[in-house]
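Review form for a predicted model. The reviewer records the input and the model, then writes brief findings.
Reviewer: anonymous (R2)
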Amino acid sequence: MYASCRVPWVAPYSALGCYGPVSWLTGGGLVRLPRTRRGELFALHVLRGQAQVHFMPSAVTGVIFTVALFAAGWEYGLYGLVGTALGTGTAQVLGVDRSRVSAGLEGFNACLVAVGFAVFLGPGHPSTMVLAAGGCAVVTVVTAAATTLLRGWGLPTLTLPFCLMATAMTIAAPGFERVWHGGPHSAELSRAAEGSVALAVDDVGRAFLANIAQIFLMPQWYVGLILLVGIFAASRTAGAMACVGSTVGLVTAWALGAPTARIVDGSMGYNAVLVAMALCGVLLAADRWSLGFAVAGAATATVLGPALNALFAPACGHAFTWPFVLTTLVFVASVPALPRLHRAAPPAVRALPEVGSEVVLGA
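Model under review:
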């Protein structure tokens, strides 16, 4: 999800440099990587794309995230993995900047698009498979457009391309008989909250983890647990902020009287998780000021979620990660006027540590 990626000196002309994923610059000149190594390198980029759903450019985290999706259902795991591969491959074919491809920045929106299509249209239908594949390719173009438009303000695209694609899909799909198969209900029109607002101890635990799982559109608490392990495997700061964001989202929703069912399934708190991670440690340098900023942003996104659900409901739409995108862009755009806050340096992505034909892939 990062806007850019800083690459260390280790291999400035490797897969992250100007010669693309098939070449390697050694002391003796340019060497073309073997086909098997190219496949391994592509797989590395795909796994980083999976991990970038939670901002982590780590192949190890990508593996753990893939396990989490398969734990939710093998169909969702397959859609997520193939979707990320299609988005990454489309970006390579279209000549997108190779540092973005290597860091996984061209894969995570495609992953979410594929999983979103599977969740809302049904994973077992041929029409869903075709539309998901097409959506993963188109979202690469949407990402390029969003990157171009936001670059002038120094803002990242985040999951904006996914939100645009998913919103268009959920609004348009019911109008096509061969596409719509009675997926999840649309967001509800604005009305008084109904149902119990009391939380039991086990409800709190499930909600805390479901907030993290819902970023992949999955409500299962154990999926959130696996994802949290993956986040901590890449960064303790990111893992801590995911916990902070989930807690803030849960407490804010409960304090305002949100229905227990919506708190427990994670639909009230997942945007808060992403906002907290983005505003403390990912887009902004982690310190006490950005921590407070992140908490405020997480609470804001939690409140914004039901508002956007109500806004999209008449057109059969959903909020998706729109609250995260809008809250984060507004908060980050304010940073130049707030001198106590500072933008974070992009993360370093390990390149190939060996030269020549014997290539060892970094994480």
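Findings: The two ends are 17 Å apart (CA to CA).
Further findings: The chain has one domain: 23-337.
Recommendation: see findings above.
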